[in-house]
Request: fold
Amino acid sequence: MLIVLTGIDGSGKSTAAQALVSAIRADGGTATLLNNHAGRRSMSVLGTRLGIRLPPRVADALETTFRVWNVLVNHLRANRADGLVVMDRHLYCQLALRATKGLPRGRLLPWLLGALPAPDAVVHLDVDPAVAHRRISARGTDAEALEDLIAFARAYRELPEYGSFEKVDASISSPELARRLAEVVRGLGRPLWRDATRPPRSGRRL
Reply:
């Protein structure tokens, strides 16, 4: 089973993905976490230190290269994995970033989305950009302008694929968010244990 998490910076994707995988494993299930980062945060931090801001097309070219490579490699890993595979980010994220920068979708990313195995669910972590901005400021590892987060959130909503996403309120606490993600997984009705006849240790089904 493959689940993809999307959402703007500060929506809690990485934290939620790790919490979901940990919960599945703690309950006796098999789960793998794969990250489809584009190096955007690292480039942003480095650019700030050096006082350099890359042109949008140059930044997108670098991000897309890293993102596509990670997505392709991780789909190969997912194909060999048992149980649940959670992907933190995907090509949808790069398409939304392009829209935020006023860049066209292009042909490669939409083509890859059609060629790669479709996820069992794409879960979008929906959060108010102001809340996301406060979270980013609090962690202090990078910086995002509130207006950029607002544009990012709007770009996600305008994706043609957005209507098929499962939307989950990400303004709640991390434990509650992990519980709601587990409900999405449970609703798909697929076994998460290597031996599908073996129940989880706690006797509960996720």
